[in-house]
Amino acid sequence: xxxxxxxxxxxxxxxxxxxxxxxxxxxxxxxxxxxxxxxxxxxxxxxxxxxxxxxxxxxxxxxxxxxxxxxxxxxxxxxxxxxxxxxxxxxxxxxxxxxxxxxxxxxxxxxxxxxxxxxxxxxxxxxxxxx
Length: 131
Fold this sequence. Notes:
Blueprint: E1 7-11, H1 16-34, E2 42-46, E3 49-53, H2 64-81, E4 92-93, E5 99-100
Antiparallel strand pairs: 1-3, 2-3, 4-5
Region (Disordered): 105-131
């Protein structure tokens, strides 16, 4: 007999971009799960939906302190197992093949045009990348 799981479905646009975003989210989930992070089980992945097990004990925003602990634990596990090797100024390829974009590029503004996003090979002021 198959166990029944309550499900929570994350929907993505039914477009090429939405399907790509859905695939990326599923890959990120698989990576976090491979680290032993406290993530809900991914029950089904379809072209523009991901179905996760429903977590009944957690309800945001009134229970944000309850959510903060597992999120902090997730960050601790990811850093301990893998992200300590990542640099802020370069994309990072995980052991499962997921590429996480660099932190600096999307946050660095060109001084000449504060609305533009400029590429940089250096770490932004205040950010401490690993050499």
